[in-house]
Design a protein that fits this description.
mainly alpha; 2 helices; 0% strand
Length: 95
């Protein structure tokens, strides 16, 4: 004999896929952006992302920007650490 608990669980199992399918389908109504594969959103009809949400490019940094003294020191430390580290990739002994 099925108890009330079993009937509730059976009802949930039977109807949950239908509920999930209809709610997922409702999310996409009328929202099919055109994709052309271009990096800029101007030709696809999709506006570009706000400045804080897009990936910076090298062209975004002014050409005359020089590293500060602290950045130079960190770059030097990074180079020294790179020389000390040897990560084996199965290719043999370190140089």
């Amino acid at each position: 004999m099925l108890t009330r608990h079993h009937i509730v669980l059976l009802t949930i199992v039977v109807f949950s896929p239908g509920i999930c399918a209809t709610s997922a389908g409702a999310q996409d109504q009328g929202k099919h952006p055109e994709t052309t594969g271009s990096a800029s959103g101007s030709s696809s009809g999709v506006p570009p992302a706000p400045v804080g949400h897009r990936q910076p490019r090298a062209s975004d940094i002014p050409a005359d920007t020089q590293p500060t003294a602290q950045e130079e020191t960190q770059i030097q430390r990074d180079h020294e650490l790179d020389k000390k580290l040897w990560i084996c990739r199965g290719c043999g002994a370190p140089p």
